[in-house]
Design brief:
The protein is mainly α. The chain contains eleven helices and two strands; from the N terminus they run ααββααααααααα.
Length: 289
């Protein structure tokens, strides 16, 4: 899953598909313009949802313009330079940088070590620039890492406690997308916490066998679950419960723009990422994957 929040294509209208694609290109272009071409390899679909939510909750319509795509001579329509898109570019760079630090050097094969060394060298400038622009967000990542270390040292066997660091950071990130309305901030924090819990459970379940081999902390191993399939089944059950809680909180939001698109991502997209809704489960090829 890799923490990606995408629309569920079979239920997406053409208008919403175009809006999502324009935002996807816009975030990519902003990353290129602010942090350089190499930073674009960090782009996942989280940033698109951040940009959509920030602009849609505040009721800020984005301007669509034809721009040259990064690393390409083609000019295509994209959303340009909204506050949400700038925030999304910062989030993508910081999330991508901290994901690089997620595994220890001795856990990586030689090829992985070489790739990480190249990434660290070429992305450090982009990361440091993003930190200068938004130091408060970097403090959130630092707190999350400290909490994760505490959970590892405690060898916690409670799934909720183990997922708490990631839930907290996603809750804090999503709360920054809300307007000044206190109720909306609370709802967004809860939504982010649910998403962080889903991501944590599915990622830990997918890595349970690798973590067992290297002796790394994994909450499923602590609970006696050693097989990947069994861990994934357990994670899906818990993630579906978190997704249902998210839907209840999301229903209380006042989404001023792009509501049908955000409905699709929050309700169907997340559910499909946890437990595929279509039997074929064919991979989706976006124009800018």
């Amino acid at each position: 899953m890799e923490g990606r929040m995408r629309p569920y294509l079979p239920e997406l209208t053409i208008r919403d598909y175009n809006t999502y694609l324009w935002y996807l290109r816009g975030v990519r272009w902003q990353m290129y313009r602010s942090y350089g071409l190499y930073s674009c390899r960090l782009q996942q679909h989280n940033g698109v949802l951040f940009a959509l939510l920030a602009d849609s909750l505040a009721g800020r319509p984005a301007t669509c313009k034809a721009q040259r795509l990064p690393g390409n001579l083609c000019r295509k329509q994209m959303m340009c330079q909204t506050q949400g898109i700038r925030l999304a570019a910062q989030v993508e760079v910081m999330l991508g940088w901290h994901k690089l630090q997620d595994r220890r050097w001795d856990e990586l094969p030689l090829r992985g070590r070489l790739r990480r060394a190249v990434d660290r060298a070429l992305l450090r400038g982009a990361y440091e620039k993003a930190v200068k622009e938004n130091p408060a967000m970097e403090r959130l990542f630092g707190q999350e890492q400290e909490q994760a270390v505490v959970q590892m040292n405690l060898n916690a066997n409670n799934y909720t406690v183990a997922a708490e660091p990631m839930s907290n950071i996603y809750g804090a990130l999503y709360s920054t997308l809300a307007t000044d309305d206190l109720g909306q901030r609370k709802s967004m924090r809860y939504i982010g916490s649910c998403i962080g819990r889903v991501f944590y459970l599915l990622e830990k379940a997918a890595r349970v066998e690798d973590d067992r081999k290297v002796g790394r902390y994994n909450v499923f191993l602590v609970n006696g679950i050693n097989g990947k399939e069994e861990a994934l089944e357990n994670a899906r059950r818990q993630a579906l419960a978190a997704a249902n809680d998210l839907v209840r909180a999301y229903s209380m939001l006042d989404v001023k723009l792009n509501k049908s698109l955000i409905d699709n991502i929050m309700i169907l997209g997340l559910r499909h990422a946890v437990d595929p809704l279509d039997a074929g489960n064919q991979p989706v090829r976006w124009e800018l994957p």
